[in-house]
Amino acid sequence: MKLIEITEKKDWSDLLERGKNPSFLQSWEWGVLQTSLGKELRRFSLEGGEKKLGLISLIREERKPFSGYWIAPKGPVFFDELHADFTKLGKLLEETLKEKTMFVRVEPELASQQRFTLPKKWKRHRAYNPSTTYCVDLTQSEEELLEHMHQKTRYNIRIAKRHGVITRLGTEQDLPLFLKLMQETAGRDGFRQHEGDYLRSTYEALQKEGMACIRVAEQEGELLAANLEIAFAGTLTYLYGASSGKNRNVMAPYLLHWEAMKAAKKEGLVSYDFWGANPADETELDFKSSWKGISRFKERWGGERLEYVGTYDIPLQPLLYKVLKTFGRL
């Protein structure tokens, strides 16, 4: 195996199409967003002989006063999982990225139930991006989608309609309201969120490429819920969601997700990704007690739970890595 650097969008995008459900985090457009935020980026194809085996896009994160690290969000992407030679890949990444690098972080999009031998040198880390999600198959009819939902989910969709909740695609003018609602949701539910400038940059950069949209739910003109969605490679991903503390009994988020699924179906997308849930095993590293409620909400839409192998670090400065990990600085 060898790494070949790719610098042209068409070359990258053509290769990525060969992956099995590649994440938008490995897309060319996501990389452009990261460079616009001042981050260094490198993209490589993985090749064995004359055969293309996969690809990997890596983003540089600085950790002053220490050296930085590289992360491949939801990568590498392998075209054929039988060719996933992690030992060789790890050595190549070490050789290529060793300058001023503490470690390389990878998140292979490989199902956790499959048997893969990962090098002992690779260190498991709590998920950087979600290692578990629920995906709804949009190739089903609307009747089948409703049938596979939990009865409470179907009921709440009807409740929202009965209370006059309507949904629509948002515009750039809705962005400040969405960001304000995100702040309200984070404060109420006690979770950390990205800075408003980052969310704004994400929306603006990917909306321009036809990948991102804001979808809102309103009642009598008042914003009750809003989602930031990403469309890529046949999948609509529910990336961020926010809801008002007002009129929660009208169940606006339920109708918002349902209308998003129906819209995605009409556009020819085949999957709706809820982006982040707890693994089935409560002893698993990535299980969070604070996610129990949101995981139950996502499970009740009738999708398939997908669990991936998770996040791994390849230490290039083992002693520094061990010290920082011991003190929770990674």
3D architecture notes:
The protein is of the alpha+beta class. The protein folds into 2 domains: 2-125 and 309-326, 3-Layer(aba) Sandwich (Aminopeptidase); 133-307, Aminopeptidase (3-Layer(aba) Sandwich), CATH 3.40.630. It is built from 10 helices and 15 strands. The strands form 2 sheets. Strands 1, 2, 3, 4, 5, 6, 7 and 15 form an 8-stranded mixed beta sheet that branches. Helix 2 packs across helix 7 (196-208). The two termini are 30 Å apart. The model has no long low-confidence stretch (mean pLDDT 95). One of its GO terms (biological process) is peptidoglycan biosynthetic process.
How would the blueprint of this fold be written?
Layout: E1 2-5, H1 9-16, H2 28-36, E2 41-48, E3 51-61, E4 68-72, E5 77-78, H3 86-97, E6 101-106, E7 123-125, E8 132-137, H4 142-148, H5 151-162, E9 165-169, H6 175-189, H7 196-208, E10 212-219, E11 222-232, E12 235-243, H8 252-266, E13 271-273, H9 292-299, E14 304-307, E15 311-315, H10 318-326
Parallel strand pairs: 4-6, 12-13
Antiparallel strand pairs: 1-2, 2-3, 3-4, 3-5, 6-15, 7-15, 8-13, 8-14, 9-10, 10-11, 11-12
Helix pairs in contact: 2-7, 5-8
* Total tally of structural domains: 2
- In the CATH hierarchy, the architecture of the largest domain is 3-Layer(aba) Sandwich
pLDDT under 50 segments (min length 5)?
Answer: none
The count of DSSP E runs of length 2 or more, i.e. the number of strands, is: 15
- The computed structural class is alpha+beta
What is the level 1 CATH name of the largest domain? Alpha Beta
Query: How big is the Rg?
Result: 21 Å
How far apart are the first and last residues' alpha carbons, in Å? 30 Å
Succession of helices and strands: EHHEEEEHEEEHHEHHEEEHEHEEH
CA-based shape: globular
Number of helices: 10
Task: Determine the CATH superfamily of the largest domain.
Answer: Gcn5-related N-acetyltransferase (GNAT)
Arithmetic mean of pLDDT: 95
